[in-house]
């Protein structure tokens, strides 16, 4: 296990280095002169030259890359052109809200997708199977922004069942102000016993979380079904059937556990995908997360902010992948050797 | 297994695959229906200038006097905020979407399969180098890399194609590297090498043709995802720009009208869902036929 851990860690470090280099390269592709953006359109030639020196643009590219790496390591991710704040601070403020949203969505996906997959695999082909197959396929075919718009306009604006936008009722900031610990509003409200904010947050969370959850729910249901059917075709399943277990018993007692491996591996992918889907949903629901920050940055061509968000999400993804791989290795010895 | 197993005869293989496809189409009505609807969408896209009731509206015509007319009469799907016929724009949008899908798939598969086959066949350091590069690209969630690239590229159809391709090719590289590595250890490759066939020829004639099946399955499965990615880029304002008709862009522009003039959003939205759905069911169906391991599981 130690050997596997070291090898996997070394690989992750290599990937992180590559991620930083690729981000650097992509951001260098920006059309136009960053110095002009920095110094402003009416800058004189002298001011431009000074901006170029300040930004390090007058030095060779490898040196610039090294500087970039060094400043990232120091925690200096550049300054957002839009908010004029350090990008790392902005990202750190926005990330928890996104985690809250995407975490809820992935939780919903697992809680709904697993039973649906199980239901579909129960009898092989039939009504339940076809229904689950078609609806999960629809869920992965619907653009997340369309679902978000429909949910918002129908359930919030027209019917008024749930709040239209925001993370919680802004009036609560005066009546029952929230003490921040983790910056995840729901958690902080729960820990400090701030029930008004907690209730409001949960109500605001429902629609955006459901919109994001559609895709992962479909994926988890499909994957669970496929993995279960594959397990059910194995010899051990035939033996268990011959021993007198019903199909349902074989599925739940013997096939479900080995089938969970691939589903777990999928979760990392699904989580990352949902985090980026949140980019679209957050700006629709005005959710104060990384996605809204990114959408605003895109709108105002705020390159440092975009680079920061890209880097943060990619790093989070590498970390989640690492954790999932280690969890799998801990559960399944075959992974360690392979 | 004999010492030298025969190379799978491409012709026989293809005939068998076609036969299996036809048989499977009878068994999997959903996939067959998906394929049929896709065919209709492709035809509609090709014939858009003939089919569209107001072909000019597919590009830059505007008729402010006819803004936001409801569906019916002369405008089956209604008109948008500047009076353009939504049906015509949905038809022209199919051209944009399919152009993006086909270009992204073709370029990604070309780059991915070439690099993957070389990596899998060469093995060793070459393989490690290529695979580490794909690892880096795969470390970005697909849509994220596309968004970051689209921001810095010139927005438009071409920019969207490049941005999406950048995040899609590594999947093909990875898939075909695995297949190519498996083929490398087959008897007929050893035999070719013993006979002195140059590496380039072995790669082109023996490894590449035999590593295409998994890629084909992935192509059809990915098409749905590319439709959605393209729509998402457009929705963020990073894809094709006005007056190009593009479904994601149409939804984005109509979003504030959803409660009052639903048709402006509903029809392009529906077009995205239907197209992605058809690609997905077709991909699933193809995988069931072409991937024997999966077939056994059904």
From TrEMBL, chain A:
Main location: membrane
Top-level division of the source organism's lineage: Bacteria
Statement: the UniProt record of this protein carries the keyword S-adenosyl-L-methionine: no
Membrane topology listed for this record: Multi-pass membrane protein
Cellular localisation: Cell membrane
Entry annotated with the keyword NADP: no
Limits of the ABC transmembrane type-1 domain: 95-328
Transmembrane residue ranges: 12-30, 101-120, 132-151, 263-285, 305-324
Keywords carried by this UniProt record: Cell membrane, Membrane, Transmembrane, Transmembrane helix, Transport
Family: Belongs to the binding-protein-dependent transport system permease family.
The protein's name: ABC transporter permease
Lineage, uppermost ranks: Bacteria, Bacillati, Actinomycetota, Actinomycetes, Streptosporangiales
TrEMBL record, chain B:
Locations listed in the record: Cell membrane
Stretches assigned to the ABC transmembrane type-1 domain: 94-283
Keywords recorded for this protein, A-Z: Cell membrane, Membrane, Transmembrane, Transmembrane helix, Transport
Keyword hit for Transcription regulation: no
Annotated membrane topology: Multi-pass membrane protein
Family recorded in the similarity comment: Belongs to the binding-protein-dependent transport system permease family.
Protein name: ABC transporter permease
